[in-house]
């Protein structure tokens, strides 16, 4: 009796055409958001370092909101606590959809980006702690700053260098960044929550439960869902837990699959995809750029000020964590996963491609700046050094990733062309119909 040899597992197996097309469309939208994020960052830096820098500071520190509800916050705080909750709501929807209905519902596929994300957070945190081990003065409080990846900025870099990453690598990068964001918000909830008010936190579960009940019943009425979401956010904020946690909790209550009464999974997009489609433009086009505008306006003070900021071990630890930590952590975790599962790379890919994606993940911005504010206090001198460290580290990672990926761009272009070949009239490339999509 002869047995048919099984094909070796692939580290980056080709997914289904439906999921590949969805990811490609999603990344195109995120690229636009990345461009807006870059514009907002540059505008904030230019304004803060101009003769009118005091006006920028006054705008950022302008207090608005009802004092009776403890919501008399500065515009910068509203951006960090309020607008980023929208960002994390979208990230939570994307992560839940990937693991419930996407290609990552297969645990074997899901394991790689999850393990890579953990490695890409643990090593930067360890390197930051190593650099600041003897610094004292509360420097170690910012250990989590270099652990986050900014997917919008990373995709903006990809757009600039015209890199045609293969579908499997694009999915890996997106999922890695989303898992990274979820782990980061978990870190914020556990390690950066002060003066916890348990009764208010328990009270927040009531509107959250009602919101969950309505979305499980496939209710889409904004006049019902938005007030409940706002109430949940307000109570979480008042409890002492960072309010962005509310965005993730609300997202996890939203169903991914369509109900049987509506035709089941094959009847079209579920409520999670519907809400993501509606809210992602608000997140990428407004919420994140506005946060970046208020968070990135650091007064550098020329080369002298830049050298002074980087002399702080906190800023140095951030640069080391983002540039070296992310690369080492993600690449090593991916390599070990391949080694222990006896998986192989696609014949057209090389380990340098994995290294390029790992370096690209060192672009940390949105969540890194948020953690910096929580660790050292918004507007403090050390918070200013955090901003310099994040900007410098992200810029170095972007430049290095651009060099690596640009050298391989011809190969990526050929792979993408092969994926898009279509000899049929059904709109699905042949490469996704020959059974190869099932490998791995």
Automatic annotation (TrEMBL):
GO molecular function: sodium:proton antiporter activity
Domain of life (superkingdom): Bacteria
GO cellular component, one term: plasma membrane
Cellular localization per UniProt: Cell inner membrane; Cell membrane
Membrane topology label: Multi-pass membrane protein
Residues spanning the membrane: 31-48, 68-90, 110-131, 143-161, 173-192, 198-215, 286-306, 313-337, 357-376, 388-407
Family: Belongs to the NhaA Na(+)/H(+) (TC 2.A.33) antiporter family.
Role of this protein: Na(+)/H(+) antiporter that extrudes sodium in exchange for external protons.
Protein's UniProt name: Na(+)/H(+) antiporter NhaA
Phylogenetic lineage: Bacteria, Bacillati, Actinomycetota, Actinomycetes, Propionibacteriales
